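tool_call predict_complex ligand=zinc ion
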Amino acid sequence: MDELAQFIDARLADDTRSLGTAQNVSRAYTYAVGTMQGTTVLMAADRFRSEIESKRSILAAHRTEPYDDDPTIGFCEECQRGGAAGIAPCATLRQLGVPYASHPDYRDEWRP
Ligand SMILES: [Zn+2]
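tool_result ok
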C-alpha cells in the first residue's frame, strides 16, 4: 500500500471511530459527528457509514503495483487497464484524499 493509500486508510479509520460517537438527536435519524475537508459536520450516521464503505471499496480497487525495475515507485492496477496509468498514486486516489487535505499528515505532493 503506497503512502497516500495508507494515509486515506488511516483517515477512514478515524471516520469509523467518529461513528462510535453517533448520538440520537432526532427520532428520524441517528447522526454522527465527522469531518469533511477539515470542518466538523453533523451527518446522518447511515450516510456516513455508507460513504466510508464506498471509499474503502475505491481504495481497495486502486492498489499500487511496484515497477519491476524500481520498486520504490509503481502504478495503479485499476487505472493501468486503460493503458495510461502513470506513476502512483493515481488520480482517483488523489481525489479520494482531498477531503482530508487539512490533516497535518497530508502532503501537498498528493494534490490532484
Ligand atoms: Zn487508480
